[in-house]
Amino acid sequence: MQFWKRDSISRPQQAQGPDGGRAPRRLRLLLVDEDATSRAVVARRLSHLGYDVALAESGFTALNMLVTRPVDIILIDMGLALLPGLTTMRKIRAAGLAENACFVMIGGRNDRVSAVDALDAGADDHVVKPFDFDLLDARLRHLCARAEQVGALARHNAELDARIARRALELVETRDALAEMQADRARLVSSIQALHDEIARLNAARN
Which parts of the sequence belong to the Response regulatory domain (predicted)? Predict the structure, then answer.
């Protein structure tokens, strides 16, 4: 298990965003690849591009890491032998370890079948080696931005549902209160009528 963070030769990151606010946070990425050289190269390049990169040498290692380490992107090599790439993705999702993460599968340049298999299995994207890292960076950030928009929409819908539920409860409570007020009014009218009837009876008896 390894972790990579940007070192002194990486591109500087602005302390503030374009609008003068805080700069966007660094995206957290988990790379799952059994090839140690490939892991090191990809991790260093992505770290230079502004990612916090965690490394796993197998799908089992990735599952263990995700228990305590949330990530935004999971980059999985399709050629994993110990636990195949698609199986790794399915197990991570089944365990609920990365509900908000984007899954990107890595295949070979001439392996179109793996791309179809990855997308059919529910991967968010499929990329091929060797990487054009600027293009990979753009695709990863686009995926995360889209996931954030979908998440924001889901949260907004959940808030609307909660507000509707609260309003429905308030309407029920208001209806019950109104019914109680109407019952009280009916009892009061009945009491007043009974009092009038008693006064009329007493007046008649006196006469």
Answer: 28-144
Q: How many residues does the chain have?
A: 207
Token match 């009092």: residue? 195
Its pTM stands at 0.65
- The reply to whether omega before 70 is within 30° of 0 (cis) is no
104 contacts 123 by C-beta, under 8 angstroms: yes
Does pLDDT of 46 surpass 90? yes
Domains and CATH numbers, the chain: 28-156 (3.40.50.2300)
Query: Six-digit token pair at 118?
Result: 């990855």
Phi (first) and psi of residue 127, to 5 degrees: -125, 160
Mean pLDDT of 14-42: 78
For residue 155, report the phi and psi dihedrals to the nearest 5 degrees: -65, -40
